[in-house]
């Protein structure tokens, strides 16, 4: 008699789908106002409707998605007030993580951040916007991980989850500084010097400069959402 085949449970499949969709939202794979259906996601992920429905319900409870109807959800469009709140919390939490990272970072950690930023810069110069954004996310998550504060990091990931779709607007925003002036350089210098205050200020400046640019785009994005809803 052949040994039983181990098949993933619905719970484990739902967890996998949740992880994939969560990462896709953080990395701007979906746009504000975009509708996601069980059928389309099932075809894309090769998974039945049951684990997808469970994963989507979890993302709705996390505030990352909005329930549209029984078979679909929608990526929310942030209001001005909510976006400002998310940005303020990111600056507080990521600033704290950067300051703690400056106390703990080893040469190998700093070299890793330098390599990530170099890849981000290369993608920017080559016009590969999605790759640039991916490397930027990797930089921020790696910096948070150096703080060794897992609760804080999970909170930061939750904030990225909410503003990730809006960050897709960065693809069409002109660069606001030259590559050599990027705040990441100050973050790396602060870590090398063990200067927590500088690390905090540098990462906060990095968040703020592009948040301001995105904030100016919110009216247009909300107008586009209203057009989709009316269709």
What would you say this structure looks like, in words?
The chain is mainly alpha-helical and 231 residues long. The chain has two domains: 10-76, Winged helix-like DNA-binding domain superfamily/Winged helix DNA-binding domain (Arc Repressor Mutant, subunit A); 80-217, Four Helix Bundle (Hemerythrin (Met), subunit A) (Up-down Bundle). The protein has helices spanning 10-26, 38-45, 49-61, 80-104, 107-125, 129-146, 150-163, 183-193, 196-215, 218-230, and strands at 35-37, 66-69, 72-74. It has a three-stranded antiparallel sheet with strand order 1-3-2. Helix 4 (80-104) packs antiparallel against helix 7 and helix 5 (107-125) packs antiparallel against helix 6. The longest helix has 25 residues, at 80-104.
Which keywords apply here?
231 residues; mainly alpha; Arc Repressor Mutant, subunit A; Four Helix Bundle (Hemerythrin (Met), subunit A); 2 domains; three-stranded antiparallel β-sheet; 68% helix; 4% strand; disordered N terminus
* Basic shape: globular
Main beta sheet, described? 3 strands, antiparallel
User: What is the element string, with H for helices and E for strands?
Assistant: HEHHEEHHHHHHH
Strand content: under 5%
Tally of helical runs: 10
CA gyration radius, whole angstroms: 19 Å
- CA-to-CA gap between the ends? 58 Å
Uncertain parts:
1-6
